[in-house]
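Follow-up to my post from last week.
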Amino acid sequence: MATIKDIASRLGIAVSTVSKGLNGASDISDDMRQLVLDTAVEMGYASKKLRAKSTRKVCILIENMDYENIDQFGYEIIMGFKLSAARRHWEVEVIPSDLNMQTAEKFDTYMLKNGFCGAFLLGFSLHDDWVKQLHKTTVPTVLLDNYIPVNQHVGYVGTDSMEGISLAVKHLYSLGHRKIAFLNGSKNSMVSDERYQAFIQSMTDCGLKPDDKLIEYGYYVPDCAKYHVPTFLENGATAILCASDLIASGVIAEIVKHHRCVPEDISVIGFDDLPLAAQLTPPLTTVRQDRTDLGKSAFLLLDGLVHNVTVSKMLLRAKFIERASTAPAKKIKNTASRSKSQNSK
Amino acid sequence: MATIKDIASRLGIAVSTVSKGLNGASDISDDMRQLVLDTAVEMGYASKKLRAKSTRKVCILIENMDYENIDQFGYEIIMGFKLSAARRHWEVEVIPSDLNMQTAEKFDTYMLKNGFCGAFLLGFSLHDDWVKQLHKTTVPTVLLDNYIPVNQHVGYVGTDSMEGISLAVKHLYSLGHRKIAFLNGSKNSMVSDERYQAFIQSMTDCGLKPDDKLIEYGYYVPDCAKYHVPTFLENGATAILCASDLIASGVIAEIVKHHRCVPEDISVIGFDDLPLAAQLTPPLTTVRQDRTDLGKSAFLLLDGLVHNVTVSKMLLRAKFIERASTAPAKKIKNTASRSKSQNSK
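User reply:
Got it. Predicted complex:
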């Protein structure tokens, strides 16, 4: 591991100047400071202070995710993480991130500059610069719902989509549904890929043939429902599985607009079990992600990475929550779809 | 959750008798004690004592796995688990298990009777009675290398086979090997299934067609090599990937018996990185499973389950260790296999 001396000799400057750069002293230029930091990062420098047990400080970087009140997806994740961190006397800073921050400097430089010995990233996508840089980071980092191969300093925490989607599809199948539509989250995300695979696998396990016209990608907002629900209905869907409760709320509203009833005509299932799920009309059947446990697990994982326990994946159980938005498939539709599915074999 | 009173009323006996049964008092018959324990388990009873923080006692049940000295696979796993447990003042008993124990009584009964609030199972297979019972257990339990769906009280810890096998296959591919054989571990185990899938996927990712004649299942002992290595050689393999270092040691011996050299004629890769790997002739290129970290992670997972954090899977990074048992594929063989693989497309 590089020392302050190594950095000084690489740059041909005094050790005291390097030290000033690393510690944010005001009597060197911004350019020199940046040069010292960039070189330190490049050489894999980690200060004793960051490694010392007594002063551990980590950050939660958050992007594209609401977290400010308890109804929002990120809230309990952050609470769970903070709870576990507090028990170990780690300091946690929650930092909303944006593209500008990512353009301004490298992830490792940002972490070093701000004295963070680890990070938990929420809501980032694989396209983000900082996420791309994680392939080579030496900073212990945990990602929610995204996975970086090979790098031992990075881990992934999430809910087991395979099990969650499978429970939902089996439930619909047991109610007689055969034409099941899936409105997924946004493309280019690992969790959407996984849920797509899980949906295909679960349908196949039930002996059903997934229908391309009944599978679409949206965004994690209610509004995306209007672009896809009409097509699903035209193509004979009797049930719609959604990648989030927010999407499901939009789907229910859209179904009602089309003068159909939930669950009498169309069954709807969400994902997450946000507080809003139980308050919808009808109360939403959904797949629960325990967000407090996600936060706690993220902390456990980060704690492991900081201590060189190279966990790469930590998956939580999904829990199926049955409420009132699912019901037996209508008899007629059911027979029609059955004969169709038999024809298509 | 059932109480002592519930059990007494179900059995129509005094609360004091139930209490005696649960606490192993000597003044009730063995039959009555067994009845009380079985009923308690059936009703989901968990004593306050077991749930209390101060007296946590867990067991490591171990079967079909050597663990008594540092050269053996189980040793460091148990050490890692014990280290983490000691830091939290949990008591750990290591118990060699066998079929008789499993026939004698149910898993949950055994745990309750012996005052264990959790278990870590090593070396068990999906066919074991106790593993089958895990689908319905309420005892927090962690399995190495095996997975139980849906039950929130059970978790799985292991090394990421996909990544490990992929690193090995890519390494062989980069050395010019095209006819790569895979000698897997025993059938009917989740980890063998996963490694099989990983091998097929990794070959496909490299643009190679997996050849059924070059894929076999063995056992985790050197001796199994003699049944498969001759077939691999006859079918033109230039490299053999093995599911454990022990298997690889047998494979090297068998290759030498056939008057071929490792790595000049045939490259060999192991899995695990046991201490023996570096001592073989030639020193073995292998995929490292960090066994101490597996033990530590198993404890973290069990700790989570005891506190109702329902982690289902925890995977560790595999690390590729290059030593001297792999070398560039022989030019002639390489060309031959290339033209063959082109023909087979």
